[in-house]
Design goal:
The chain has two helices and six strands. With about 90 residues, the protein is α+β, with helices and mostly antiparallel strands.
Length: about 90
């Protein structure tokens, strides 16, 4: 139950890179069912995101590894060095 509460609280938060550029908004969390560990964030990319274009993120929704998260408060901050476009 706790996992769902956390996901609801975080859903809709804006996601920014560690360089201060807006990437999009958090829409869901992907959690490993066996271990309960948070694996990825699902982020809806803003259509006008310069950061997304720079990182080669062409999909509307992207998976960002949890390892890329550097801070969470009113917004989510991710290290753009750990974000890769899916091939």
């Amino acid at each position: 139950m706790l996992k769902y509460t956390i996901a609801k609280q975080m859903s809709g938060k804006k996601v920014f890179t560690n360089r201060g550029e807006e990437l999009g908004k958090l829409i869901d969390l992907l959690i490993d069912e066996k271990s309960g560990e948070l694996e990825d964030l699902l982020v809806e990319v803003s259509p006008d995101s310069k950061a997304a274009r720079k990182l080669g993120l062409s999909e509307r929704i992207v998976r960002i590894p949890y390892a890329a998260v550097t801070a969470v408060s009113d917004v989510v901050i991710v290290d753009e060095g750990n974000i890769r476009a899916e091939e």
